[in-house]
Amino acid sequence: MLKLRERNTQEQYRPSRKAWGKGRAFINKRLVKRREPVYKPQTFYGQLQHIYVVKFSDSCSDARVEPEKPVFLVVIRNCKLKADDTELAKLDIHLYAHTGTLDVVDITSLQALVGRVKVQVGGGGWAIIDRSGSLARATYEEEAEADN
User: Fold this and answer.
1) Which DSSP state fits 143?
2) For 30-58, how does the pLDDT look when each residue is reduced to its tens digit (9 = 90+)?
3) What's the CA gap between 43 and 26, in Å, rounded?
4) 137 exposed, middle or buried (CB, 10 Å; 0-12, 13-18, 19+)?
5) Half-sphere exposure of 120 (CA within 13 A, CB side)
6) What is d(CA 23, CA 45) in angstroms, rounded to the nearest whole number?
7) pTM of whole model > 0.70?
8) Rounded to whole angstroms, how far apart are CA atoms 146 and 122?
9) Nearest residue to 98 via CA among 86, 117, 82
10) From start to end of the chain, where are the E strands?
11) Cα 37 from Cα 90, distance rounded (Å)
12) For the segment 8-28, what is each residue's pLDDT rounded down to a tens digit?
C-alpha cells in the first residue's frame, strides 16, 4: 500500500511497509581524473524508502527534460554487505548486518524486489534472498509416456 503526499511540483509515495530491492549501477574503475573513465556494472541491495514523481514545468526547458513528462526517482537505504560465503553466493544469498546511506536514483535502475530473513550464522544479521538470478526460474520437463 502506498501513501500519497503532495509537495509543490513533486509527489511522494512512501510504502507503508519497507520494500527491499536490488539495483545496478555503473562504477568508474579508474580513480585518476585525467584519464577516460572505464565503467563496470555493479549490483547493490537496499531498502526502498520513498518514491518521488517529479513533473517539470515549461519554464524548465533548458534543463534537458521534457516538460510535463514525469520523472520517477526512488530513495534507497543501501545495505552494507558482508564478504560472501562462496556456497551462499552460488545461491544468490548475501549477508548484511547494517544499512548505509540514502541514495536517490532513477527508478529504472531498480532490477528486482528481493526478500530477507533473520540469520544467526556469520555473526548474525540478515540474509538477502535474491531470486532474480539463474535460480529464479523454475523449469518443468514433461515425463515421457511409457509405451504400453
Assistant:
1) P
2) 666 677 777 777 788 899 999 999 887 77
3) 9
4) exposed
5) 0
6) 6
7) no
8) 49
9) 82
10) 2-7, 10-15, 19-28, 39-54, 71-81, 93-106, 110-113, 115-119, 125-129
11) 31
12) 344 444 554 566 656 666 665
Q: What confidence tens digit (pLDDT) does each residue in 58-100 have?
A: 776 666 777 778 889 999 999 888 886 777 777 778 888 889 9
How long, in residues, is the chain?
148
Three cell numbers at 78? 543501501
Q: Count of CB atoms within 10 A of residue 8's CB? A: 7
Q: How many CB atoms lie within 10 A of CB 52?
A: 19
Cα 39 to Cα 24: distance, rounded to the nearest angstrom = 12
Please give the C-alpha separations between residue 15 and each of 30, 49, 75, 107, 130, in angstroms, as whole numbers.
37, 7, 11, 15, 20
The answer to whether 96 and 126 have CB atoms below 8 angstroms apart is yes
C-alpha cell at 141: 520437463
Q: Check if the beta carbon of residue 125 is closer than 8 Å to that of residue 79.
A: no
CB count in 10 Å sphere of residue 95: 21
The C-alpha atoms of residue 70 and residue 16 are separated, in whole angstroms, by 23
Place of cell 543501501: 78
Distance CA 58, CA 24 (A): 32
